[in-house]
From TrEMBL:
InterPro entries: C8G, Calycin, Lipocln_cytosolic_FA-bd_dom
Organism of origin: Amphiprion ocellaris (Clown anemonefish)
Name of protein: Lipocalin/cytosolic fatty-acid binding domain-containing protein
Chain intervals for the UniProt region annotation (Disordered): 27-47
GO molecular function: complement binding
One Pfam family cited in the UniProt record for this chain: Lipocalin
Span of domain Lipocalin/cytosolic fatty-acid binding: 71-203
Length: 230
């Protein structure tokens, strides 16, 4: 049972990069279709390929607290998604904080620690984002290549906000992070809403996260190590 809760926490509560089943109406009489000339198929374009990474993104290890890189602490402030968990339980989301660091033994990865609360218990999930040849584009590897999650750091000023895209199986989730919980400007929120709208994620699919009572230290029994995968 503990293993089941851990799996649910990783897949549903944190990433929320979900899949949806499409349905089509069936039934009724159908006439024989007329032969038609096949139109050439358009090249398939993943939605995340339309999201351009921020220019000259800096992923290097921060030496001080000047907040001039992507490393450090980021508070999750808002999420745009059609994830069924958020659609059904979006009013019950818990405060979530992410910390990014560059490991000393690798220049091709980014260590990720995410802390959140589930059933009144603080949990920490450890993951690794892999750098790609495209600056500002990362990969969270799954147990199989088709389960990989593509990530794009689309907008950031390093010191106050970051907007990140997550894609799995062609489905997009946007997340808005802040360096603190109380300095988000109205223009930044508007920008996030506009980017979400371009992905078909209107106001009904925006889910603000609490900006208080974030988890601190987490005991070893409630750390989920998803390195290399989970």
């Amino acid at each position: 049972m503990a293993g089941l809760w851990r799996c649910m926490l990783v897949v549903v509560v944190l990433m929320c990069v979900c899949l949806w089943d499409s349905t089509e109406a069936v039934g009724g009489a159908k006439s024989r279709p007329r032969p038609q000339r096949r139109r050439p198929k358009k090249p398939k374009v993943d939605p995340i390929d339309l999201a351009q990474p921020a220019q000259n993104i800096d992923l290097q290890q921060a030496v001080d607290c000047s907040c001039t890189t992507m490393t450090g602490t980021w508070y999750l402030l808002n999420t745009a998604s059609k994830c069924s968990y958020l659609v059904n339980h979006g009013t019950k989301v818990e405060p979530t904080v992410m910390t990014l660091t560059r490991p000393a033994d690798s220049d091709q990865t980014l260590s990720v620690s995410t802390k959140t609360r589930h059933n009144h218990q603080c949990w920490e999930i450890l993951q690794v984002y892999h750098l790609t040849p495209t600056l500002g584009r990362l990969t969270l590897k799954g147990t199989r290549p088709e389960l990989n999650i593509d990530i794009v750091i689309a907008e950031t000023d390093y010191s106050s906000y970051a907007i990140m895209y997550y894609q799995k199986h062609g489905k997009i989730t946007l997340k808005l992070y802040g360096r603190s919980v109380d300095n988000l400007s109205e223009p930044t929120l508007t920008k996030f809403e506009q980017l979400a709208e371009k992905q078909g994620l209107g106001l009904a699919y925006l889910f603000p996260f609490p900006n208080y009572n974030h988890c601190g230290a987490v005991d070893q029994d409630h750390i989920i190590n998803c390195v290399p995968t989970c």
